[in-house]
TrEMBL record:
GO terms for biological process: protein folding. Residues 119-205 form the PPIase FKBP-type domain. The gene is fklB. Coiled coil: none annotated. It comes from the Bacteria. It catalyses: [protein]-peptidylproline (omega=180) = [protein]-peptidylproline (omega=0). This is Peptidyl-prolyl cis-trans isomerase. It holds the Pfam family FKBP_C. The keyword Isomerase applies. The keyword Isomerase applies.
Amino acid sequence: MSDKFSTVEQQASYGVGRQMGEQLAANSFEGVDIPAVQAGLADAFAGLESAVSMQELQVAFTEISRRIQAAQEQAAAEASAEGEAFLVENANREGVIVTESGLQYEVLVQGNGAKPTYEDTVRTHYHGSFINGDVFDSSVVRGQPAEFPVSGVIAGWTEALQLMPVGTKLKLYVPHHLAYGERGAGASIPPYSTLVFEVELLDIV
């Protein structure tokens, strides 16, 4: 039991504050002032008049929103440029094949089984990373192959899988327009991300 928060009421109150803090941390902005947050929470709970006028609040929220949007646009532009530069250089490496769509791949293991079609479901092992090497998802690490429709994945995968006889392992270099595009994928994949996958086609199911 916590020495600082010894009663059930204190512990539950701390839990409420903790949850609010986690939500704020997940949707924060540069310069957030925790004492001001605490003061706003206390004033609202006590039913006191706001220390900041509604007009001032609206101006502040609008400015913070503008700053967040500007930062996101800058990060997206940098990610797009970095990805394009990476792909230009990577395309010149020996063994890298570039398709008409812009997908790049190299053959790590050549299989000799059947090739899946757009309508098929496949079982694969994969390892996904950003161009800096940071891993964002991996069935290999989980130790559990993944099954999914060929038509139900990102465009770069859909294209690549139909080129792969069962038993093949490819390394894919997927431009953002064949991956998650300008929106990204939740918190794990930022907008305009070029992605790298090692994909092994285990079976057509």
